[in-house]
Protein 1
Amino acid sequence: MRVAGRSFRRVRAFLGKRALDSDLDVELATHLEMAIEDNLARGLSPAEARRVALISIGGLQQAREKHREARGIMMLDILGQDVRYTLRTLGRDRGFTAVAVLILALAIGANVAVFSVVNNILLRPLPFPNAHQLVWVAPPPSKCGLSCATYSTDAYDEFRVNTRTFQDVTGYFAFSSPDNLKLTRNGGAPIPATSIDVIQNFFQVLGVQPAMGRAFTADEGRHGAAPVVLLSDAWWRRQFNADPNIVGKTIDLNGHQTTVVGVLPRTFDFGAVFSPGAKVDAITPLDLYGPPRDWGNIITMIGRMKPGVTLGQAQGDAKAAERYMCWNNRYPNGCGKDYKDSVVPVPLKDYVSGRMRKSLVVLWSAVGAILLIACVNLSNLLLARASARSKEFAMRGALGATRVRIVGQLLTESLILSGAGAVVGLGLAFALVRWLAHQGSIALPLLGLLHVDSAALAWTVLVALSAGILFGLVPGLRIAGGNMQEALKESGQGVGHSRRHERLRSVLVVTEVALACMLLVGAGLLLRSFLKVLDVDLGFQPQRAAAVKVDYEDNPADGNGQDDASSRKILARRAAYFHTLIDRVNALPGVEAAGITDYLPLAGNRSWGLPFPKGVKRPENLHVAGPLVYVISPGYLRAMGTRLRGRDFTWNDRTDTQNVVVIDEAFAKFLAAYAQWPNNDPVGQVLDDGSKTGLLVAGVAQAMHAESVEGENGWQIYYPGTQNQATGSQLVIRTTLPPAQLATSVMSILREMNPKQSAVEFKPIQMLVDHSNSPRRFFMFLVAAFAALGLLLAALGIYGVISYSVTRQTCEIGIRMALGSSAGRVQREVLTGTLRLALYGIALGCVASMAAARLIASLLFDTSAWDFATYGIMAVLLVIVAVLSGYIPARRASRISPLVALRAN
Amino acid sequence: MGPSKLDLLQGTLDLMVLHTLTAMGAMHGYGIARRIEQVSGNQVLLNQGTIYASLVRLEQHGWIATNWGTSDNNRRAKFYSITAAGKRQLAKDAHHWQRLTDVMDRVMAMGKEGEEPA
């Protein structure tokens, strides 16, 4: 308290300096007069009286200084002086200030932006209350896609009932496809939208409160309940003009009058958390005990652990619940076996952003390197400035300034520069982060929630301070460490002192080149990986192919498709409809091929079990995931550009003919290992799927990258849509023209055949590939941009040092040229010096890159972290840049006129 | 010339000022300085100017209060007086000082015994 009180008075004293000073002056004047009076009274002469009085006071100025020291904060006074002086000197040297602030702004801006991304994805908890309690429950990763990462509704029920460590468990339907909703307003054309079905307690478990209205109730999850919907904030704003009275209104969704029960908060974005890069407009309750009971593995599970429960306890609990879980309670012989070893809770945060960790660490390191390069560059610039100012410092030293004071002055300068850089950099970061947050097509989790928050601001301050100290300290110590009086004696372009500076500056440049080299190698490796990824044979040809979602509704008179007769009617009607549709599309000029599928590659999938060669005994302990299932029409494989051996489906494959399938090469190879097929060729062979007639293999298709461009991919099996019920229809068209040119004519065919067809977009197949590659593209682009920045800064650094050394040696070069050295020789020598620096830096950088290879290795695709070509190319690139930046000063050196150079000194 | 004057120990000036103010009531800076010189029998080497640093320090601690007034011969002067907190502080410091001098006395006395022949 007392200390605080005194500090407060001191600060007040600092602020009210002038008043206190004048008070003291009055006091001292009075004091002096009184002393003189007393001395006069003692009989001294007036002059002597004054002299003695002054002596006994001991100097008025000293008294003032002591007073100031005692009452206030000297540091603040000094700081004020330093700041004013710095602003004056920087204001005089505008060019230097602009370059320094720009370099710092770029480096700090990049750091803050990347920190925001890292903070958003990795550091901050998920945007839910007590997010650490949330777990994602899933089997370990396997090859059969989403069907092996999800659970049946019966399994979900058993899990929920038979675990003790969870407050509650929820989930959502994992197989929703984009544009699965049709909103009809005022009788206009249906508007496509995307919804996700969630278990009714979804929002209670996540702890999300709707911004308006309420979440779902238990009743709304019952079979046959009146349809309700929750709108996303974005959709509510876009589609409903942010109607404040929307809650309670009904809207026409897929032909059902649906009541809007609420609007979700802006901070909740389903896509951002669970399905990066996807836009989800609405949330609807899942009909948990209705038909979905028989759809097999369809839901993902998310649990909220009870407070105090550890992940280990939850995992043990989940394991114990496995024996109660059945794929379908009507087939109890699977109970306890269907989900053996496949119920593993992991923190939801790990599921959402775990995959990003390594990429983000690399990205963070890259901006860290940029910051270091910027600091080294600034150190260099300041060092050059400091040596130019060494006389000024020597003068100040001679006048009594302490070393601390001079280092303090230099530090003030660097901190002011870094502060200015931070302010501009923060602006850059804001812009960059804003731009990133609106890149909806990049499949990065939580991207839409990206913003510069208080943590990022704190980070900015930290980065700016440490940068300022880092680049200010080296020249500061160097100046203060040298013998300052020497500087006064040096004449003109000095020798000894400056030579030491130059060595230090060379070390700094080598460091800079080494860092830039590391960045370039990293970027090069990522670029090479990216090119390799683009080069992957996907098993289909995305170029010149596009997909459009076709709306089709079965005739209610045909029944629900559960029994055989109804199923036949439905399939026959579909066959006739799509046959006509495809024929009409095929007739359009420019169309090479057209076909229908229910799922597109790289966009959702499922699996129906594992058909096996007929007549071959299935091994007892065969734990192999079934192939991914696609229900397609004739022409689809051709439209995708997939090679096919054997025959494609035809419209004559009907329910009353032999059931046929097409399998992919990888699945064919797997099956051939068990079967005794001539030439190991499955075409014409029959697979056993439990039915009487089995499945005749009509053809073998090229293996597709069905799940990811880079990762492991499940096998594929194709069923004809004329014999099996598809769960949607995507029309794929291969054209000779740009697909967009056909959009209108295709859409008009769809409209003619079905007036209820919604106005959906033409999606180039390339877009699916790009979406899948978007995180890699994103990281590669950023790292490459940082590497380019690093290269630029390194070039600046090299230029600065060489240019400075040429200026310093003007006289020497002049003499040598006067003695007959040729311009070419001078130029060559300067370039040699440049190259030496660059080569040291490159060697150091390459060694460091190799050492750091482990960091980046896991991000590479089909590229070694020690890829010789990349290292070579980057080294050559650096050499070229170094020579270019050394060339300008070299040229200047070669043009030095001996007469001018000698006269100048 | 007589023996050289004593340099003031760190912190002793503050104590002297507080004590002077207790004994004499409100005084101005010159008065305090003169009083200390007189009491010490001109033994102390006091740069009178330094008294003002001591005064501002004591004021910031809240141990003395100030107000502007008029001196005997009609000059505007700042008068200092001790506060209640200042009195408490003085009692504490005086006690401390007393202990210190006692200890010093004893240590010095021991030195004299040591000089006696064994």
Protein 2
Amino acid sequence: MPPPPTTPPASTDDRTAADMVLLRRMAGGDKAALGDLYDRFSRPLFATALAVLSDPAEAQDIVHDVFMVLWEKAAVFEPQRGSPFAWAVTLTRNRAIDRLRARRRRTAALENAAPDDLGYEAQPAGADEQASAGDEARAVRAAVAELPADQRRALQLAFFGGLTRQQIAEQLREPLGTIKARIRRGLLRLRDALPPRR
Amino acid sequence: MIDERQEELAALEAFDLLEGADKAQFEGEMARNPELQQRVQQLREAAARLAHAAPPADPPAALKDRILASAAHHRQAAAPEPRARILPFPVIVAWAAAACFALLAAGMTQLYFAARQRASVLEEQGQLAQIELKSLQTRFETERFVNERKLAEALKAGDLAQMKIAALTSMLGNSPAAMAVAVWNPAEQEGVLAVDKLPEPAANKDYELWMIPPGAKPVAAGLVKVSPLGHGQVLFHAEKPVHAVAKFAVTLERKGGVSVPAGSMVLLSQ
């Protein structure tokens, strides 16, 4: 029998709290909870894997494997180490990057995986509403669009590129110290700009 | 107080961009600094939300059904026991003892640092934390002493001088904590590999162990199965006689393994 949902920590934002309840239900074998978590996570996870790999079939495999990990390990999830969403994204991104690096055709794949700019500034407000994951996605994309272009580019390469910090510096033709500073400033700015997950 | 250098490293850690000695040094620093650990977690959360910044893409409609169907065939991990599990120390053969000792020592070191960190937070709350820290330190030292004694016994009992013992470290930037210890006994043409923190492979993949003789091609040494928590210990034999080993390696291969390595390198000895 699934364990009853328990009250999440007060400091946890609403969306994370709901995710944690679903994980607890999954730990008790509740497949409906797995379906609900899929509805909440699948789009950003699939989009992330696709952005890294540029291959829908591989991205689909990654998302499948990640949800199996979430299902199998729901009982050993440690909330003090991060949110369920961050856990799922980390699993997805790591697996996608591992697979990218495993390919022998690394150079070509990386060029495809990390386009020069994802084009937020060029999009009119709300242009992607229909296709995006909703309010959360819009809020994140707006926050990213507000970043200075050099910081935004550094974060995009760091997250989606599957590159080392040295490779990021080489790709952007900047000293390594400059890239590290951009990543720090960009990520801190993003953290401060992002609203709680609702 | 977190300075700019620490914050820079924390941001890189949030993207898994720290590697090698830099990563090890930062993790040590983080283990002693709860504020720094919290900052890394904050930045990891912010970085994870970049997933929403990927170009929008909908997964295929059939994927949900496929996942729900697969869930019926996947065994779920049980909730962890409240107390930390102490790894058993096999004493049947010398090399197995040596491998387990090395891995256990590494695990106990991590346990010790984790305990120290936990205790440092609690110290602010009073005397109780100091007692706990003392207790954990004593436990660590005691277990280390016991294991060293067992290793010494193993050294006396077996021809360990003839054996090849190697630590394998992670080649995956995204699974840096994965590690293993391999011990090969050329006289018996047998060995043991103990792995820890190695993520489970995809359902259609297997980890495969390779022995690499000096100046020769890798020799397959069998599949490496890991538990859902990343542990594994296998007795292995080479496909053909191997009298000297320069390196051990673990690769990720298609299900069932291959005779010539083709997949990505996961672990490699120095």
